[in-house]
Design brief:
With about 350 residues, the chain is α+β, with helices and mostly antiparallel strands. It has helices spanning about 5-15, 25-30, 150-160, 160-175, 190-205, 210-230, 235-255, 265-270, 275-285, 290-310, 315-320, 325-335, 340-345, and strands at about 40, 50-60, 65-70, 75-80, 85, 90, 95-100, 105-110, 110-115, 120-125, 130-135, 140-145, 180-185, 230-235.
């Protein structure tokens, strides 16, 4: 069974349709009733339930079926809509991660229309003003509601680079008035394993068996690990500038720590960007290519060792990553205007 089949099956199995006036109908699918009013949707479950899933199945018959897992009583809301209808402007007091299981989906976020395709995700801050478009094209969307403390735990445990984690936390959680969202798209490496994790998570939330809470937390950790490694996300111009500096600081610190035997593939493995990205990043911040920047770091370390240690020139060359003594002499002299031996004897 696929994630799409499971999401559809859950709504179809829940034959208990709530009456139109039931409060859950407007809670899960609230049609627009005002251009200026902003609803605030509070976390719908008890505090110990820190993750929930909301399934939307949109049909070409202009019907939307919605259900939530876990729930004290199984139910399925049905809403008949007109093509292009919007939900009411709203925010959440929790983090929302939306995944487009099938079809296309559109939202108006901070006054801007955003279109999502199958496989896209959108991570929305708890204060971000948005509304959903209801279109006659069939679509299935899985919304994950994540309690704020759970999101903090996930972010702290997940991303390799701590400064990147801090950026995402501040952008999406800690700065209450920032109102941010991130649109994730799968990169060249298709993240089929993401759907596997989402399938298992939805199944756990639906069945609610013993130990489910711990399993769901582990699956959410995996989901964010996959998103951070196999998905690209878009940022505003200012966000991108900040993020690039943060990444450059992380990358340059890693190079300075591992300069002796580092390869550019190591950066790809640790930071999960393509090789050409690191050349562009370093060139933009220093004017140097990756190779030239690494050489500069190595020579600076060699200079320090020449003046602060009693190691031979050959030992120093090897220590900074050069096993060809002639090449080391050549590049050192080009940078400092003298040989390593003469440089060491300078007063």
């Amino acid at each position: 069974m696929t994630l799409l089949q499971l999401a559809r099956q859950i709504t179809e199995n829940r034959q208990l349709l709530l009456p139109p006036e039931h409060k859950l109908n407007t809670r899960l699918v609230c049609p627009e009733y005002s251009k200026s009013v902003q609803d605030v949707k509070t976390y719908p479950l008890l505090q110990e339930e820190r993750i929930f899933a909301l399934c939307w199945n949109i049909r070409s018959s202009h019907e939307l079926y919605a259900t939530i897992c876990p729930s004290p009583q199984p139910f399925c809301c049905r809403h008949h809509f007109s093509d292009g209808e919007k939900t009411q402007l709203h925010t959440h007091d929790y983090i929302e991660l939306a995944y487009i299981v099938d079809g296309r989906f559109s939202q108006r976020i901070l006054g801007k229309d955003i279109s999502f395709s199958r496989g896209d995700l959108c991570l929305i801050d708890k204060n971000c003003i948005h509304q959903d478009y209801l279109l006659s094209q069939p679509a299935t969307i899985l919304f994950l509601g994540i309690a704020n403390d759970m999101f903090s735990e996930i972010m702290e445990e997940n991303v390799t680079a701590q400064k990147i984690t801090s950026f995402l936390q501040s952008a999406l959680l800690k700065q209450k008035d920032l109102q941010q969202y991130l649109h994730f798209k799968p990169n060249a490496q298709k993240a089929a394993d993401l759907e596997d994790c989402l399938f298992l998570l939805l199944k756990e939330l639906y069945e609610g068996r013993v130990g489910s809470r711990h399993i769901c937390r582990g699956l959410l950790l995996r989901i964010f690990a996959i998103i951070s490694t196999k998905y690209d996300f878009s940022l505003s111009k200012d966000q991108r500038k900040t993020m690039n500096w943060i990444i450059f600081e992380e990358v340059s610190a890693y190079i300075r720590k591992n300069y002796a035997d580092i390869k550019i593939q190591d950066l790809t493995d640790v930071f999960h960007f393509q090789e050409d990205y690191f050349n562009r990043l370093i060139k933009g911040k220093t004017g140097l290519t990756y190779s030239a920047f690494l050489q500069q770091v190595r020579l600076e370390k060699a200079e320090h060792l020449l003046t602060s240690s009693k190691k031979s020139v050959e030992e120093i060359a090897a220590a900074v990553g050069y096993h060809n003594k002639g090449y080391f002499y050549k590049i050192f002299q080009e940078k400092y205007g003298t040989t390593p031996s003469k440089y060491r004897k300078k007063p």
